[in-house]
Amino acid sequence: MAINTEMVGQWFGPFTREYTFKDLSLFALGSGCAIDGRTDLEYVYEKDMKVLPTFGAMPIVDSEVTRTIDYGYNYAGSLHWSFDLTFHRPITELADTLSTKVQLKGLFDRGEGKGLLAQHVGDTYDGEGNLLFTNESWDCLIYDGGWGGPAAPKDLVEMPDRAPDVEVTERVPENQALIYRLSGDYHPQHADWDYAAENGQPRPILHAVSFAGVVCRHFVTSFVPGEPERLTRFKTRITASLLPGTRVTSQFWRMDDNRVHFRLVNADDESAKPFLNWGVIEWR
Q1: According to a count of CB atoms within 10 Å of the terminal CB, is the N or C end of the chain lower?
Q2: Over the stretch 145-198, which tens digit does the pLDDT of each residue have?
Q3: Vertex 158 angle, CA 153 and 163, to 5°
Q4: For residue 186, what are the contacts with CB-CB under 8 A and spacing of at least 6?
């Protein structure tokens, strides 16, 4: 099927999502919270509960959204490329209805064999109509390059040539993708072993928003302990697939009083490509 460039600029939705503390807890569990029954318990236990900010990255990659905005791509080759999540106000309600309007802002050609980049921008509102957050999310459709579209714009983030100021390491549980997918991203690449093998993976891979949540937890603990609501921005590029069971390290460089740059790397293989790179977190 040909790429339908006429869809560029169109808005879709609103896509609505009701949530309660159970959904917040499930999302947090799918981001590795409380694997020891205690660490980051505040994201999964309704007593004095906090919202893990990367919860805001999820609505735009919900399966309903990705299936609705179908411009003619091969679903089997759909990979999350990057996202830039800006919080206009903190997510503090433990039960609410979110409404997300999504624009297909651009389609870009990386070339034959390199894929297509799709740029989506989603505005999400709370139940009272307040704009909560905006997410600029990019997908790479690895089987859809070479169709003659424009080149993608450059997006460069400085990564300091020095040792990180803070590092945090943990092991991703083998079942984390199976937990996370229950929050709404049901792509078979995260659960189906035969599907993973057909697409060159030794096992189903972890969702990018899930391991971005790992970094987010590490950031909060290290820089704004107990105050995730202070985040105003979380931006990252997804640069490698992550297999559950891997030990990962979040590396943070403090750039100024309210901004760090980060990446997520393999804790046991320094030569491996980072899982997340060129990341930015800002806070108030």
Answers
A1: N
A2: 999 999 989 888 999 999 999 999 999 999 999 999 999 888 899 999 999 999
A3: 150
A4: 63
